[in-house]
Amino acid sequence: MIWYDAQKGFGYIDPDDDIGPVFVEYRSIEADGYRVLFADQRVEFSTARRPGGAEALAVRLL
């Protein structure tokens, strides 16, 4: 994770494969209860293309 704004419900992931920052929304986080991510947290995810770049889908905490 690069950063995540819990109040706004989105942020950016810095993937290991150097594709650049990947947008993530709270709806894509696979977790029970309050869905939030933290800077420097490790996650795994799949990606989809969107007009502004890549978006993370099916985000799972490691």
Automatic annotation (TrEMBL):
InterPro entries: Cold_shock_CspA, CSD, CSP_DNA-bd, NA-bd_OB-fold. Signal peptide: none annotated. This is CSD domain-containing protein. It is found in: Cytoplasm. GO terms for cellular component: cytoplasm. Keywords: Activator, Cytoplasm, DNA-binding, Transcription, Transcription regulation. Residues 1-61 form the CSD domain. The keyword Cytoplasm applies. The keyword Transcription regulation applies. It holds the Pfam family CSD. Coiled coil: none annotated. GO terms for molecular function: DNA binding. It comes from the Bacteria.
